[in-house]
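Hi both,

Apologies for the delay on this - the queue was longer than expected. I finally got the flavin-adenine dinucleotide-bound model through. Below you'll find the protein sequence and the ligand SMILES exactly as submitted, and right after that the structure tokens for the full complex including the ligand.
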Amino acid sequence: MEKKKALVVGAGVSGLAAAYALGKKGYSVKVIDRNPHAGGVITTSEENGFKAESGTNTLMIPSQRVLDFIKEIGLERDILSASETAKKRFFLHGGKPVAMPMSLLEFIKTPLFSPLGKLRLMLEPLVKKFPADANPSVEEFVKARFGREALENVFDAFFAGIYAGRTDSLAVKYAFPPFWNFEQSGGSVVLGAIKARRKKASSENLFKPMVVSFAGGMGELPRKMAEALGEDAPVVNARLTQIDFEGKWQAAWSSPQEDDCDEFDVLVLAVPAWDLAKLPVGGTLAEAFEPLCGIPGAPINSLTLGFKRSDIAHPLDGFGMLVPQKEKCSILGTLFVSSMFKERAPTGYATLTCYIGGMRSPELAALPDDEIIPMVMEDLGRLLGVSGSPVFKRMFRHSKGIPQYDMSYGERLEALNTLREKFPSVALIGSYIGGVGAGNCIENGLKVGDRF
Ligand SMILES: Cc1cc2nc3c(=O)[nH]c(=O)nc-3n(C[C@H](O)[C@H](O)[C@H](O)COP(=O)(O)OP(=O)(O)OC[C@H]3O[C@@H](n4cnc5c(N)ncnc54)[C@H](O)[C@@H]3O)c2cc1C
């Protein structure tokens, strides 16, 4: 019997995971990407012993399923766990990096919050919960539940770290579902979290999410994922010229490797939300995904700088440092990459990856390198005691990097659900649905195999 066929448009980790899962279900899969390489926003560049990631520096493995997949594609031996020292998370506070308190004693002592701010945080279980049909922004939710200090000193920076976003334009129930769900189920975020923890401890599902990278850098992940597709390896540098539906999906594409067309039973669109509108799709499918095309993407630059270790005064004993808006810096935060994972810099050197732009200051992301680098150096000198010039520099720019689960996200999800009902042979996946983390993207890609 002839195999069923699937077309996957987009060879980022979402598309690659979907292609793998469909291949395992017996589909013959064609993966098309317009980029010269598979992996989407994930690539690693290496020069003189310094590694720089274009996007993802750390992969949070969210489930046993994703861990099993990583093993299945032969990456288990290359997994690098984040070092013990990387457990500390710093927040910039009053111009100084302050570690996030991890115990009650540290909480009592931390300068991150004033005594009144600490009291306000502890009163969270007494705050009335939001009505189930409310749609508060992260700012409204955090301010109401934890107080203004918590918002301005920590959460503002936390959401800049995950989404490069602004707390006033992210919807809490979609941008950070655990918060909303804990509050709704337990009457308070804290009580709901305790309840959920107890439930998990007594259940079979004891998987503990892991933060990892790979020996050769994050780029190893999509490289191995593409390799695992065997003869269904992605066609890159490809331009889709047509997608129509006549009983089956008919598509045509053009690339230096091949100009071809074919018919498919299943169509998987694994491109970013803002690229959906550019696909050569017309008619009712294009109308159905129109509300998703408007999902905003935060512009973000990732700048990795390498220094002599002796040129950085800070011990770099942590994961990195997040920067709240009120600190008025040019960076959203910086990762202490060479403290987290070995072989990111030659012996005696260290790398820092800084993020610039986001929804907070999109104009900074558009500046040329020779204006951004001195600005970042000024921040690093002041905040971490960096002196001397960087011996390694690498900037990656994403004009739309991270999708925003914004205040209209509920309506966008409704459109997605309608689309699923109307077009049962189409799957839409990507970081704009079900979480922006690369681990979430892989998990949701694998789930496409459960559906078809
Ligand atoms: C700067 C930055 C830092 C990040 N840091 C982290 C982190 O530390 N940890 C973490 O978990 N996540 C992080 N992320 C998020 C994570 O990397 C992404 O959410 C995830 O990799 C997205 O994968 P994707 O496959 O959905 O999309 P993408 O990687 O964007 O892939 C989409 C693919 O679709 C292709 N495409 C688009 N249009 C077409 C078309 N018309 N025809 C053919 N192909 C097309 C593109 O070329 C691309 O290859 C970061 C993201 C950025 C931008």
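Main takeaway for now: The radius of gyration is 23 Å.

I'll put the files on the shared drive as well.

H.
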